[in-house]
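Consider the following assembly input.
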Amino acid sequence: MSTSNQTPVARRSTIRWSGLGVFLIICGLLFAFSWLLLDSILKWSIERSLGTLNGAEVNVNRVEHRWSPLGIKVQGVQLTDPAQPEFNRLVIEELMADVSVEQLLLGRLHLEELVATGIRVHQLRSKPGEVYQSLTEQGNFKQWTLDSLAELNMALPDVDEIVARIGLQTPVAIEKAKSSVAEQQAVLQQVKQEIPTAEDLKRYEEELKKLTDVDIKNPAQLQQVQTQFAALKEQFEADRERLKAAKELASNAVATLKTDFDAVKNAPASDLQRAQQLIQFNSEGFTEITAVLFGEQMRQWSQYILLAYDTLAPILARSADESLVQPQRGEGVWFEFTQANEPPSFLVKKATTEFVWGETRVDANWTNITHQHQQLGQPTTFQVRSDQSPLWQLLNLNGELALTDNGVDAKQQWQVKGVTLNELGLSEQTEFTASLVRALVDSEGAVSLRNSMFDGGATVKLLDMVVTAEAENRWADVVATALRQLQRLDINASIAGALAQPEFSFSSDLDRQLGSALKNAALDASKTELAALQTKLQAESSGFLGANQDVLEGLTALLSDAEQRDKKLEEMLKAKFEKQLEDQLKDRLKGLFGR
Amino acid sequence: MLTLLAKFLKALNSESGVWALAFAFVLGMMMGFTPLWRLHNLVIVLIALLFRINLTGFILSFVICSGIAYLLDPWFHQVGYALLSSENWQPLWQTLYQSAFWRVLQFHHTITLGSFLLSVLFTPVVLAVSYVVITRYRTHIQAWFNKLKLVQMLKANRFWMIYSELRR
């Protein structure tokens, strides 16, 4: 029996306790890493999440956090405008907020009091921002105003161009009449051959006379004369038939020629009238002068007036619909399974935002900023009130907005009084320059959004206006003169269309006044050319009519001859020769038997 | 310094059993496929460190699977999206969403849910395949591998020598 001197190998524990130590060290390092880099992580997170909601690059200059009370301070926030990446749609100098710890532990971000200062809109970026999702909001309007300025052709209307465009009817009428004259000349020849000649008629008369002069002595002779008369009558009737057909031909020819000649005669006047109308029509482009001159400025103002809709609503709407936020590769999508009675996952209970307009700062007070208004049961409200600032005497704006299943529902009204405008460029074209030296602006209006569709209007009153305008031609001078004389202008603005693509329109009394003045100016400016055109067309028309009048006259004369000859034949036909012959025979027979 | 590092690696690689390596590959795969900054990954790291799992295999698997995950992310997203948006599953998701614990696990993120569930489905397959490959490697391939010039050059390195001394 042998004994083994091998020591039994102890079975090692499944647990590696040293690994637990390493794990704790890793956790410690992670915590320290997060603690030290928390601000950078927050900065990155804000840029990423806001950028996704904004649809374009968002830059944050600096982020600071504090633990007690839990809060955050963000400095230098720039939201690139997706429609114009070289501009920021919104710039916020500083943003401070207290975070609700209780809600944060439940996975909700509730900011109790948010204060944002130094907010500016439409600021030029140092370099264009990256666009993640191209949006076209307001792009159309901007392009429209630029196009309109470019299309505001201040050149005088070119009569030659207009003549080419209308297609003159005088030459057309002359060509048609020429063709007609050639056709009717053939008719004239045909008619001439068809009608009995004067000699024919004279011969008939002689034959008729010869028959009536015959001394009837007996019935046999009467019978013979009657037969001869019947033959002659037949010939008369045949001639009359031919004459009738020839008369109809001649009559139609005369009518056709008269119509064509009348068309040639009237064509110059018609052409001139159409040229005048087209010149006037060309000036109708100026009837939207209000929109062209003041549209861009209005658009800039609208950015402030519609700030809540323009900036906040699209961001909230995008955050509410995960399908709108297209994930970048490897990002994934976060779902929310909030219930109807649950607090929103994101909520700013109160916010004070300070907007900067030039040197003026205006506070806007907000409540309930969220994208889950249906859960909250209240809309986001905003109110701006500012009195006696250097830029205006009164600014009062308030409204509310809520995201619903159908889109954005909102309403807003405003009143602005005594806004001072100075040195505002209106047009800088070569032919036409205009600027608003000074004016006072009053405006009030209301806009509503139902299912993300705008509907609203406003009046903008420009008072105590001083406008300078210079023009290089007579037509543009009409506009310039009208603008220089302006002391007050009431502009009616309206907004319609979708939230992402609002459509603005502007009109004023200036449009109507200018429309009428410009039409007269256009005609006046084209007077010489139009007179030359009239002379030319008249000469063409008269020349043709003079050269071809003899054809018409010939046909008319022939028709007249035919009428006369027809009458003569009719007279001869109606002559009571037979009765006369019978009477003569009766008298003769009475003499023979009655004596 | 090199000695200290080599000692550390030796401690980590002391578990060279077939199952220790196979489980290392599975855990590395789960951590590699799912987004890194998730709480469940901390649990995976804890398991890998606390139990006798081969950490070299774990790290290697994690690195390789992280690379593959970039290619598979759209698929993970689709699976997660389909599950999270499925009407039938809404009551479950809504219940989980009310719980802070599940919210912290970030189940409501499409790629997180999709990649985690698919990783769990892959686990038995990867475990079995790893076991077979490691066994065959040790019997057939390892000898051939060690004869490669590149491997011999690497083994001539000073760090490898210290590491080999410690392993004896």
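Residues 22-135 of chain A form one domain. Ask yourself how this observation constrains the way the partners meet.
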